[in-house]
Amino acid sequence: MTPRTRNILITAGAVILAFGFGAAWQFSAARSARASLAEASATLAETSRELALEQLQATLAMAAIAAQLGNYERSRQLASDFFTGLQEHATQAPAQSQSAVQQLLGERDATITLLSRASPEAGLQLARMLVRYRQALGRDAAGLAPAAAAAPDSIRD
């Protein structure tokens, strides 16, 4: 083997070896990036789920406020939006709160009827639902339970 052929083979071997190290390094970096992307995707999915549930809570709170202010039509619209959203996202609620979510969904018709009739009880009903919704999602709602409505007979002096 001539020195020229030997130098060409050594150079070719060094290039192949350098390419192999570079490819292995890039493969390792890509694998690490894929793992980071999977973790970020999982975090994003969890955050999106939490955001959807928080938006439902805000919608229910606004419905309760609107009813307390006497704007029953707006409250009815917001309550309807809440129930529709809750139905769509019911499977995203924690497993231990599925029964509570189903109970809230079961109150849809009665609540919408109260609001349609402009019943003053609707605001209190929505406030109670808000507390139960927060409790179902594991949020601290201690001490937030609305007081029971006073009966007209108990107001006498």
Q: How many domains in all?
A: 1
Segments where pLDDT lies below 50 for 5+ residues? 149-157
- What is the makeup of the main sheet? none
Instruction: Give the second-level CATH assignment, the architecture.
Output: Up-down Bundle
- How many β-strands, per DSSP? 0
Computed over alpha carbons, the radius of gyration is 31 Å
Separate helix tally: 5
In whole angstroms, how far apart are the ends? 119 Å
Which features does this protein show?
Four Helix Bundle (Hemerythrin (Met), subunit A), rod-shaped, single chain, 157 residues, mainly alpha
Question: What is the strand and helix layout of this fold?
Answer:
Elements: H1 3-68, H2 72-89, H3 98-106, H4 108-116, H5 121-136
3D architecture notes:
With 157 residues, this protein is mainly α. The protein has one domain: Four Helix Bundle (Hemerythrin (Met), subunit A), CATH 1.20.120. Helix content is 75%, strand content 0%. It is built from five helices and no strands. Helix 1 packs antiparallel against helix 2 and helix 1 runs antiparallel to helix 5. It is rod-shaped.
Give a brief outline of the structure.
The relative contact order is 0.09. This protein is mainly α and 157 residues long. It has helices at residues 3-68, 72-89, 98-106, 108-116, 121-136.
